[in-house]
Write a structure and sequence with these properties.
There is one protein chain. This protein is an alpha/beta fold and about 220 residues long. The chain has helices at about 5-15, 15-30, 40-50, 55-60, 70-90, 140-145, 150-155, 185-205, and strands spanning about 5, 95, 100, 110, 115-120, 125-130, 165-170, 175. Strands 2-5-6-7-8 form a 5-stranded mixed β-sheet, sandwiched between helices. It has a 3-stranded mixed β-sheet with strand order 1-4-3.
Length: about 220
């Protein structure tokens, strides 16, 4: 069963139909590529900034270790944005365990891995950072992606969370799940859409005719 990291799922949800199907086709391919994790460099430095184990100057100096110029510049911009955000939100950092969601028809999984937890406006909030240029995020897309994890964090006894969120370092926007009353509906609708895309893409790969009887799903 394909498993998406949360940033990858956000990208999938925010993409139009054609790129969505390309992403899914790649996930369904029998030939797997390990690929390159462009987010690892930022995640490592995020921990250093948020925990205060390294100064900003030290973190920026470490960017020389990143070989690819465009990745190095992306991480630099991300770290600078994160530092400004941290200055405005100096509360104590805490760790939050990741959560995994499985779609209703067992077609795909999503893993939400918070980069850190922090108290924002009096609420203990788990935050996942986003530093990808395209596709652009919208409130509707982010809420639909976050919503599938609300029950997990509401019921868990491992942490006393009040909210889960995405911090976009591209425009300094913090998307709070708790701020959207329609999140649960949006989450279910998006999952149904992605499951349907998986079905259609599998049919294309298997050579099923467009007029063939569709697979019946229990939404």
């Amino acid at each position: 069963m394909p498993t998406f990291g949360f940033s990858a799922y956000l990208k999938l949800c925010a993409s139009n139909e054609r790129p969505q199907r390309s992403i899914i086709r790649e996930r369904l391919s029998p030939v797997k590529s390990e690929g390159y994790d462009f987010h690892r460099s930022l995640r490592l430095r995020t921990q250093r900034v948020m925990k205060g184990s390294h100064s900003l100057a030290e973190v920026l100096q470490s960017l020389s270790e990143i070989k690819m110029p465009h990745e190095r510049e992306s991480v630099r911009r991300g770290i600078q944005s994160l530092t400004k955000w941290r200055d405005l939100n100096p509360s104590k950092i805490f760790e939050v365990a990741p959560a995994t969601y499985e779609s209703p028809n067992a077609i795909f999984k999503v893993k939400y891995t918070p980069d850190f937890g922090v108290r924002v406006n009096g609420r203990n909030t788990a935050i996942h950072i986003w530093n990808t240029k395209t596709p652009e995020l919208s409130h509707r897309v982010v809420y639909s992606a976050l919503a599938i994890f609300s029950d997990h964090y509401r019921n868990t006894s491992l942490s006393s969370l009040d909210d889960i969120a995405v911090l976009s370092l591209r425009d300094d926007t913090l998307y709070h799940l708790a701020l959207n009353a329609e999140a649960a509906f949006l989450g279910r609708a998006m999952v149904a859409r992605i499951e349907a895309q998986f079905d259609r893409t599998r049919d294309e790969i298997d050579g099923v005719r467009p007029d063939s009887e569709p697979i019946q799903r229990q939404w």
